[in-house]
Write a structure and sequence with these properties.
With 180 residues, the protein is mainly alpha-helical. 71% of the residues lie in helices and 7% in strands. Helix 1 crosses helix 2. The termini are far apart.
Length: 180
Amino acid sequence: MSKKKGLSAEEKRVRMMEIFFETKDVFQLKDMEKIAPKEKGITAMSVKEVLQSLVDDGMVDCERIGTSNYYWAFPSKALHARKRKLEVLESQEERTRLAKELSSLQEQRKQLKAEVEKYKECDPQVVEEIRQANKVAREAANRWTDNIFAIKSWAKRKFGFEENKIDKQFGIPEDFDYID
């Protein structure tokens, strides 16, 4: 005695699609429940479930007309579906390739920015900004030197201190002078 093994869900789906493609006709559920067991060996109990899975996956069209549901699928629709799926896969591959290229270019940009940063001190604009900052700092230092000389002069006149004692008391170096 040999036990007959049942069909897998995928085998049932393939065989049900064969019915639609071979007949190129429109069916109701009750028609499919009669045809599928006879022609393709799909049990009548599973016809509705398999048919619904095909409708859910967009492989079979279903339309309600009045109180009845009609099902159909034509080979040309399956061809178009495969073409669309292939286009989606190709576009995903293209998107993946472009994402890799973008990542590579961003890394290259980062490296170039680091290299530019390394040579930034030689940039004429940066050098000019440093010169301007130095000029402002020199003017400020000379202004404070003026202020120190003015206070030393005032302290000499007001209190009669000697200049070298004022310098020693306030920690002013002997060579203290304006910056040129």
